[in-house]
Amino acid sequence: QYDTLKSGIRNLALQRGYCNGELTLSRLEVIPDLNEANVRLHYSSGIRLNFGDVSFIGNHIWEDRVASLQPFKEGDPYNVSKLGEFNQKLSNTEWFSSVFVEPELDRLDDGRDLPIKVSLSPASKNQIET
Known about the structure:
Helices cover about 25% and strands about 35% of the residues. It is an alpha+beta fold. The protein folds into 2 domains: about 1-45, no CATH class; about 50-120, membrane protein fhac (Ubiquitin-like (UB roll), Roll). The chain has a 3-stranded mixed beta sheet, covered by helices on one side. The protein has a two-stranded antiparallel sheet with strand order 1-2. The radius of gyration is 21 Å and the shape is elongated. The relative contact order is 0.18.
């Protein structure tokens, strides 16, 4: 449970845009005579990232129509759930056969703005539903 707790803290920080955080203190003290344990954790989150520019790859729809579905603006605090929401909104349009929204961590420089890449594949023009 101790390792699960530490992992949970790290994962929550990553989801909220704290990509450079680290546990600076991690101590577990077990007291068998009292049947108890003391846990000390210190987490240094570092700076919070913001959403950066969004690039579209494979888009055949007017970019402003696609961008209007975006649940965040450049400069908003990064939150991974917003990427999932954007992915879902794009998928629900049925304009695309595949949608993949991802942060571009390799393009992150010393700044705080995390670029986002949206990879899209057009849907078939002839769709028939029965």
